Each structure stands twice: as C-alpha cells, then as structure tokens.
Fold this sequence. Notes:
The chain has helices at about 5-10, 20-30, 50-60, 70-75, 85-95, 115-125, 130-135; strands at about 10, 15, 35-40, 45-50, 75, 80, 100-105, 110-115. The protein contains 7 helices and 8 strands. It has one domain (about 5-135): Roll (CBS-domain). The protein starts with a helix and ends in a 5-residue tail after the last helix.
Amino acid sequence: MGQTIRDIMTPSPATLPADASVVEAARVMRDNDVGDVILVDGDQVCGIITDRDIAVRAVAEGGDPAQLQAGDVGTLDPTCITSDDTAEDALRLMRGQAIRRLPVVEGGRPVGIITLGDLSIEREPDSALADISAAPPNS
Length: 139
C-alpha cells in the first residue's frame, strides 16, 4: 500500500467562512504564508480560494476585493481527498482534474491540504519542482 495523505499533507489548513471578503482571504494567505484558503460552511468544506483566484477572478475583472465574498471568487464544491487515501490517489485526482491543491477532509471537515509541491517533495525530491517547493519563500 502507498503512503497515505496523512503522512505528507500540511495539517491545520487556513480556513474562512465562504462569506468572508476576498480581502480577508488575502490577509489570511499573507499571514500564513500560503497560496490558498479552504472555505467552510460551519465546519464543512464548501470551497477553496487561491491567490490566483483573487488575481484573475477578482482584481483582473475589476471587482472590489473588499466587497466580493471569497465564495464568489473561489471554487465551490472542490474535489477533496481523505487523509487515509494514498499519494497515488492524490496524483490521479490532480492529473485527471488539472488541479494543484486538494483539501484533505475527515467527515467533511478540513484537516489538511496537499499540493502538487508536497507530492513532488515526497515523490521526486531531486526534481526542480521539489527544489522550488521546498525553498523558503522570498519576501
């Protein structure tokens, strides 16, 4: 059996209610040094918003990030994976749906996030993507 997502995910992902503003989502990304925030309805995953969503779906469209809700800009009903699934399962989902991030859920609740970079570090540690993903952020 392959390595489980629990072994390689980033635990305790950044979350916000889907009705939080895009500005709030951007601040959470900045403060947590991440490129995504999982959107929740109560304690259940209902979406995900990324830094790219903010740039392309809010700012580039001329929207006011202070007035737009994260759920209006992010992806609702995202593809998720469980912590007991394998790295191969994650790669298959990412490849099949052309996505780079998967919320990790248990009972619909967010418990982690796994990214293409996480998988690269784990599966191909000598690759260029793994080197870039493992490097500290530049300010």
